[in-house]
Amino acid sequence: MATIGDVARVAGVSRSTVSYALSGKRSISPETRRRVNDAIRALKFTPNAGARSLRTAQTGVLGLLVQFHEDEFAPAMLQYLLPITEAARALGYDILIMTENDGAEALTRAAESGMVDGLVLLDVIDGDPRVDALRATQQPGVLIGLPGDTRGLDVVDLDFAAAARNLVDHLYDLGHRDVVLVSPPRHVFDRGGTYSWRFRDAAVQRASELGLTLTARYGESQQPAIDENLHGILDECPDATGIIMHNDASVAALPRLLHERGVRVPDDLSVVSLYSRDFARWFSLPYTAIESSPGLLGKVAITQLTERIAHGDEAGPHGTRLVAAEIIDRGSTR
């Protein structure tokens, strides 16, 4: 089992520097911190949580607040949990997952009890009550998802507007002039899921700028409504040559449904979407798509949070980081 001395040797620093990197008692340079973190990951070093707690009054635990809605597609949320957990463990933190319906109360309870050193809010919505609860705590936090009011917050999210523009441009450049957009269900918009209207509004605007006809329709999240909805949209838009799928549950069902209709991709219909590589593998999805980057989002969020725990305001100003939208061409467009 690796020791703190082993980490110091591999990183080329003193044992005390490794200790400072773990505890946050003193500032160290970003380059030195990177070398220490690289050594920790390479050696699979796990700091003794009890000893660290005694030295620093920290718990070595991060609270992760997750909202699971019965009317949403659970696999889409689950793909974020492992990257967050792995990123935290690489930096010597355990994760406490809280899934209570009243997330604000759970957050306050965890913070006031001293159970956690910091908090991660997943699936953040506009007007999210957990955000005000976070602002009232002493512990720092980071949001994965963009709320309406970001003042004083560290926020990480995919650039959904850029993702939409990239997909519209991709189809337009191939000559498509009549395209359908299948959005998340209406209840996601109503609930305040900002990613839904950030993507839809950007797609509609870009299509208008290009003179492309784009028909935007809400999708569904549960069967049999998914199939009924997709059949209805395709029947309504027989002249469409391309479809943009921004709905995880619906795109998972699309290959089967198109096969049943005798629609060939990309010969009869070009398909583009937005999901992660893991999601594509889980559901055998062959479509060109924007990489949703749950792994990168988790790593960026945890890195920002642990820097804030260690250095407070010295970690830099609060702000929003939008991860670039990278398109993966899987040959589903023509």
TrEMBL record:
InterPro entries membership: Cro/C1-type_HTH, HTH_LacI, LacI/GalR-like_sensor, Lambda_DNA-bd_dom_sf, Peripla_BP_I
SUPFAM superfamilies in UniProt: lambda repressor-like DNA-binding domains, Periplasmic binding protein-like I
Every HTH lacI-type domain range: 2-56
HTH cro/C1-type domain span: 3-32
GO molecular function: DNA-binding transcription factor activity; transcription cis-regulatory region binding
Any single Pfam family the record assigns to this protein: Peripla_BP_3
SMART domains, A to Z: HTH_LACI
Keyword terms: DNA-binding, Transcription, Transcription regulation
Gene3D superfamilies noted in UniProt: 3.40.50.2300, lambda repressor-like DNA-binding domains
Protein name (record): LacI family transcriptional regulator
Organism: Kribbella jejuensis
